[in-house]
Write a structure and sequence with these properties.
- With 138 residues, this protein is of the alpha/beta class.
- Helices cover 44% and strands 25% of the residues.
- It has a five-stranded mixed β-sheet, with helices on both faces.
- Strand 1 and strand 2 form a beta hairpin.
- Helix 3 crosses helix 5.
């Protein structure tokens, strides 16, 4: 089986998580500068088999897309042109940053470590992927 890759896209940084080849466990992978995301994905997908990509869908509390969509949409369009055989799906990402911070606290990370925005982005991408996998089990 191929992996599923998850993206928590941000204006400056993008958190990335990936499943194991059996698509059972979501693991944080890395954080990359959003301007270098396509290059990173191109290199990664040359090394690893990726079945699909899940992108965090930012929504407001009233269920409307957030302002961040204006940055995510051009990335998704470019991705689809470069990788037409790799399906890309959106998955609700509301509260993932809050959950990431809570996971860091529960994990015993120091206050200084919790300020690491790259780590928050990676954990957020992992939460998106974990929730996506759970939604497919139902």
């Amino acid at each position: 089986m191929a992996r599923i890759l998850s993206i928590d896209y941000g204006r400056k940084r993008t958190g990335i998580a990936v499943t194991d080849p059996l698509q059972i466990i979501a693991n944080r992978l890395t954080t990359v500068a959003s301007s270098q995301l396509i290059d990173f994905l191109t290199q990664y997908m040359q090394r690893e088999s990726v079945e699909r990509v899940v992108v965090g869908l930012p929504r407001q509390m009233n269920n409307q897309p957030s302002e961040s969509m204006r940055y995510i949409t051009p990335f998704v369009n470019r991705f689809r042109k470069l990788f037409p055989n790799v399906p890309i799906e959106f998955f609700d990402e509301r509260f993932t940053s809050v959950l990431a911070h809570r996971a860091m606290i529960d994990g015993g990370l120091s206050k200084m470590a919790r300020r690491n925005k790259e780590l928050v982005d990676e954990i957020s991408a992992t939460i998106i992927l974990r929730d996506y996998l759970e939604s497919k089990k139902q």
